[in-house]
Design a protein that fits this description.
Layout lengths: L1 H32 E5 L13 E6 L31 E5 L7 E8 L4 E5 L2 E4 L2 E2 L1 E8 L11 E7 L5 E5 L13 E2 L4 E5 L16 E2 L3 E11 L12 H4 L7 E2 L2
């Protein structure tokens, strides 16, 4: 009888060890390599949609305290740092409140001059190439019933992507000139008229606030469908977006 009890306890302890090891492995992967995020707003449409689930590459730019759970104040700056490239889609901590994660596209590097004039983006006094690229209509809560003009922009390093310009005369279609300070970056949403970004309250983003580069959409649910509403998945899965790279 005692032998049976010992066998059961030994089996239970083995199961506990497996669970602990799995949890530790998950923490290491999330902290060092890839972290999943959900897109909660339309600021990056049409590149990223509400209901997209993405993996963020956390070793792309090295590590800061914000790479770690609960952001312990263990060190300043970044270790194993590498520079992001103009056009990268980046998750970062919101400078006025680092408890919040934001996702935007990197437009301005340290020392750059950035300005928007009559909806045209200028970087270092040079207009970014911008050509019409059809129309876009969101689903779910962002579906206004109207088609929104899409423009394909091409940066000086060849990175190109679609942006939305729903209101050509909005307050963010004409801005002052921003000069990006050393150790900081200028971020913009691809949904140019509906994005709180460096033109507004986000301001310049310190290098240590970068969390990682958005790399892959691994799952996507449309029409404001909750992940827990499994019975709605067949009708609302965006099959064409699953395992799509973020560009």
């Amino acid at each position: 009888m005692a032998e049976k009890i010992e066998t059961k306890q030994s089996g239970l302890w083995e199961n506990v060890k497996v669970i602990i090891q799995a949890l530790l492995l998950a923490v290491v992967i999330r902290t060092v390599f890839f972290q999943p995020f959900t897109i909660p707003s339309g600021s990056m449409m049409p590149t990223l949609l509400v209901g997209d689930y993405i993996f963020v590459n956390k070793f792309a730019y090295g590590y800061s305290k914000y790479s770690l759970p609960f952001a312990p104040d263990l060190f300043e700056g970044r270790i194993f740092a590498s520079e992001p490239e103009r056009g990268d889609v980046i998750v970062f901590r919101f400078p006025p409140n680092p408890d919040l994660d934001y996702i935007k596209r990197l437009i301005g590097l340290p020392g750059d001059k950035v300005q928007v004039r009559d909806s045209i983006l200028y970087v270092n006094n040079k207009a970014v190439q911008r050509v019409p690229d059809g129309v876009f209509r969101a689903d779910g809560q962002y579906n206004t019933g109207d088609d929104v003009p899409v423009f394909r922009e091409t940066l000086d390093n060849g990175v190109n992507f679609d942006t939305l310009d729903q209101f050509p005369d909005s307050s963010t279609d004409n801005t002052r000139e921003f000069i990006v300070p050393a150790g900081h970056y200028f971020m913009m949403g691809d949904n140019r008229d509906n994005s709180a970004d460096s033109r507004l309250d986000v301001g310049f983003v310190p290098a240590q606030n970068l969390v990682g580069r958005a790399s892959l959409i691994f799952f996507s649910l449309g029409n404001s469908t909750s992940f827990l509403e499994v019975w709605k998945w067949p009708a609302n899965l965006r099959y064409d977006r699953i395992f799509k790279g973020v560009e």
